[in-house]
Amino acid sequence: MNLVQKLSEKKEDLTEKWYDLILSSYPKETQEVWRSNHDRFTNPVGVTIKKVAGELFDLILEWKSADDLAKSLDELIKIRTVQDFAPSKALSFVFIFKKLLRDEFMEELKTEGKLDELLAFEARIDNLGLIAFDIYTKNRDLIAQMRIDEVKRSHHMLLRRVNKIEDASARGAGQV
Length: 176
Fold this sequence. Notes:
mainly alpha; 8 helices
């Protein structure tokens, strides 16, 4: 049995472990709430993390469509981008998957003389990390642009108010 088959066989367990590892990057209280609440309306972040972990697991196994990988990654990265994580922490969920695989399969594959399968599969995760970095950068740029636009709108509104006050003062002064 090759590594992809082993991963497929243990999909549910590994997805749950990956989900737990992703949640471990949040405070304990948050982890508890997100683990116990499965309602997508009252717990959209926790539900999205769980959903994306499952989707990504399948997509990494198939490794067919970079667009599908990017779409799934984007959901989770958008959340982590706005949470003010450092970039390394925001994207750490990709690389902890690598650690999970090593913890689960390293010794077994070493014994079987199939360590090269693990290394080849890890290349997929490295590529996933590169895709994730591009998505994270795009999202950070978008947030920065949104902030700039908001400052411009606020500044413009302030100038309009000041001009209205000056116009009203000038009209009032002319009437005296």
